[in-house]
Design brief:
Blueprint: E1 4-9, H1 14-25, E2 30-37, H2 41-51, E3 55-58, H3 64-70, E4 77-80, H4 82-88, E5 96-99, H5 107-115, E6 119-122, H6 126-141, E7 146-148, H7 151-160, E8 168-175, H8 185-189, H9 193-196, H10 206-214, H11 216-228, E9 236-240, E10 246-252, E11 257-261, H12 267-275, H13 289-292, H14 307-317, H15 321-337, H16 345-355, H17 365-385
Helix pairs in contact: 1-12, 2-3, 4-5, 5-6, 6-11, 6-15, 10-15, 11-14, 15-16, 15-17, 16-17
The chain binds magnesium ion.
Magnesium ion binds near residues 150, 151, 152 and 221.
């Protein structure tokens, strides 16, 4: 295989560092063309030196001088700001863009990559939640593909390789249930950020870990699956599978269900996207079925986790509703991480923002950016009055 030239948007975060770990194991297969960070300058510098990155972007412009200085003796070019990132992903030197930024901020550079016809390995689900119809249309127009990195969607993608053109009856999206699966509702109500950050199975960034605790993450994944696989939300079923061994399943008309299994480790879906259609070793643990003993299933508890229902409502409503839900949730989660609001304030804020939305049926990119700003402002104002 010709060396794949990779750009990693958000290389210092959880997905970014694990992407570089896979690349570290297969240096002969990849060139690191571009890495970027929001503000983790020290790690970005270390990564640039280790992987001999051609370009680095530090989005926080105040940190540019320090990064520039540290890489002065290397061949790495240093840039600042998100506009530079959007320009650089279009470069002819880039084959694949790994979208590993957190939240809505990943949308612009991901769109820029798709417009330039790049293959996008997408971990940043908020991009599809906020603007799924625009993002997938852009992908089709520029005849490129989005390869899922989210473990459930990577699983579905792998299961669909068995479809052979047959229509999918149902997608079964598995959920761990998060750290509060067995807590009573009254106890969850008093949970702090530190409790929610203790995910039982997956090691992930703070934002997605809180979203897992509220099950907003699973709701967003329903929306993500709707766009990635062009399937009606009514055909997407969420099932809790607390061991996180089955990463998701696809059911066909004859009742046959194809599942993808593995030890929970993000390097597996990352590796699959990076080297698709080839498979490479990624250093993860392998399954020992006898030791595992059993895999269990449960219905998600909608009463304890109302965010899941909100996601179905938003995607059924369509237009800018999912964008609004995402914007509200980003603000609510940031406040919860600072222990400024309670756990159930998150779904409350999300629902209030969704209900009071200035609805746009077929949003343009401008509408999406406006919705994001307006709803974030509304969520902040709700928080200030709580
Ligand atoms: Mg996931």
């Amino acid at each position: 295989m010709k060396k794949r030239r990779i750009a990693i948007l958000g290389s210092t975060g959880s997905i970014g560092t694990q992407t570089l770990d896979v690349i570290r194991r297969h240096r002969d297969m990849f060139e690191v063309e571009l890495i970027s960070a929001r503000s983790s300058a020290d790690l970005l510098i270390a990564q640039a030196l280790e992987f001999d990155a051609a370009n680095v972007v530090i989005c926080d412009e105040r940190k540019y001088p320090a990064v520039k200085e540290a890489l002065a003796d290397s061949d790495t070019k240093v840039w600042a700001g998100i506009d530079s990132l959007c320009d650089l992903v279009r470069s002819a030197e880039v084959d694949m863009v790994v979208g590993a930024m957190v939240g809505f901020s990943g949308l612009r550079p991901t769109l820029a990559a798709l417009e330039a016809g790049k293959i996008v390995a997408l971990a940043n689900k908020e991009t599809l939640v906020a603007a799924g119809s625009i993002v997938t249309r852009t992908m089709r127009e520029h005849k490129t593909v989005i390869l899922p990195v989210d473990s459930e969607h990577s699983a579905i993608f792998q299961c669909l390789l068995a479809a052979q053109g047959n229509e999918v009856e149902k997608i079964h999206l598995t959920a761990s249930g998060g750290p509060f699966r067995e807590w009573e509702r009254s106890r969850i109500a008093g949970a702090k950020a530190a409790d929610a950050l203790k995910h039982p199975n997956w090691s992930m960034g703070a934002k997605v870990t809180i979203d897992s605790a509220t099950m907003m993450n699973k709701g967003f994944e329903v929306i993500e699956a709707r766009w990635l696989f062009d399937i009606a939300p009514s055909r997407i079923n969420v099932v809790v599978q607390p061991e996180s061994i089955i990463h998701s399943m696809v059911e066909f008309v004859d009742g046959a269900v194809i599942a993808q299994l593995g030890h929970p480790d993000m390097r597996e879906p990352i590796g699959f996207a990076l080297t698709f259609p080839q498979r490479v070793s990624v250093g993860n643990r392998k399954l020992d079925f006898a030791q595992l003993g059993k895999i269990t299933f449960q219905e998600p508890d909608q009463r304890k986790f109302p965010c899941l229902r909100l996601a179905y409502e938003a995607i059924e409503k369509g237009g800018n509703a999912p964008c609004a839900l995402n914007a509200a949730n980003e603000v609510a989660v940031a406040a919860f991480l600072k222990d400024a609001i309670s756990f159930y304030d998150i779904p409350k804020i999300n629902e209030m923002c969704l209900d009071g939305l200035d609805f746009v049926e077929e949003p343009t990119m401008e509408d999406i950016f406006e919705t994001n700003v307006a709803v974030a402002r509304k969520a902040s104002s709700i928080i200030s009055k709580l």
